[in-house]
Amino acid sequence: MAPALYGTALRSRLLLGTAQYPSPAVLAEAVRASGAAAVTVSLRRETAQGGARGAFWELLQGLDVALLPNTAGCHTVKEAVTTARLARELFGTDWIKLEVIGHHDTLQPEVFALVEAARILSDEGFRVFPYTTDDLVVAERLLEAGCKVLMPWCAPIGSARGPMNSDALRALRAHFPETPLIVDAGLGRPSHAAAVMELGFDAVLLNTAVAKAGDPVAMACAFARAVEAGCAAHAAGLLEPRDMAVPSTPTIGRAVFS
Ligand SMILES: CC(=O)[C@@H](O)[C@H](O)COP(=O)(O)O
Prior knowledge:
The chain is of the alpha/beta class. The chain has one domain: TIM Barrel (Alpha-Beta Barrel), CATH 3.20.20.70. It contains 10 helices and 10 strands. It has a 5-stranded parallel sheet with strand order 5-4-3-10-9. A 3-stranded parallel sheet has the order 6-7-8. Helix 8 links the parallel strand 9 and strand 10 (203-206). Helix 1 runs parallel beside helix 3, helix 1 runs parallel beside helix 10 (216-236) and helix 5 (111-123) runs parallel beside helix 6 (136-144). The longest helix has 21 residues, at 216-236. It is globular. The chain starts with a strand and ends in a 22-residue tail after the last helix. 1-deoxy-D-xylulose-5-phosphate is lined by residues 17, 40, 70, 97, 131, 157-158, 184-187, 205-209.
C-alpha cells in the first residue's frame, strides 16, 4: 500500500512535476496513464499564466490528483515563506514543497534557510515537504522543525544522473524508519527509480526525465512500473551482495544419469 503523507493516503508511489512537457495535453495524458498520485505546481508559473482562472489551472483540476505547490525559484527564507503563503491562498492546500535554492550551478538546497523556512511554515500550519540534500543532520533538523516527510535529492535537478550517493540514502532510510522518504530530483531512468525504491524509499518525485523523453507518456508509465518493481523487491527481501562466489546448484552427492 502506498504511504500516507500528513494523513493523506497516496494512490501510488509516483509524483510528477508539471514543467517542460511538449504540451498540456501530453502532460495530462502522462499523469493519467502513469497513475501518478500527485503533481507539483509552481506558483510563479500559475500566476504568470492567469492565476486561478488560467487554462493551466483548469487542466490541473481535471487531473484528479493531489496538488503539491512548490516554492521553485526561491533563494531566501523570506521569498520561500511569502511564496508558500500565496500558494496556500491560490491552490487551497496546506501542502507545500519547500525549495530554497542555495547554489546557482547545482541548484543545491540552501539547507540553513530551508530549516528556518520549514519551522516558520510548520508553525503556521503548513504541511511541509522539504526538498533537501541527503545529509542526516539536516534531516534531523527538518524533523525537529515540524516536517513529517523528507524529500532528499539523489542528484542535482535536471541532471538525470541517478543516485550519486546510495550510502547516504541508505543511511537516511535506516535512521528514519518511520518517516516517509521521497527521492526528489536527479532521476534519469526507470532503473534509477527502481534502485532507490529497492533501498526502501516510499516514493519518488521526478519531472525532467519524463517531460523531456521522446515519448513522455510511455516514459511516465515505465517509471510507474519501475517504482512498483523496486518497492516489491524491497518488500520481498533482497539478497545482500557477497565478495565470493557461492554455488547456486548443490555440489554434494553424485549426478545420476539414466
Ligand atoms: C518537479 C519538481 O518539483 C522538482 O523537484 C524537480 O524538477 C524534479 O527534479 P528532476 O527534474 O530532476 O526530476
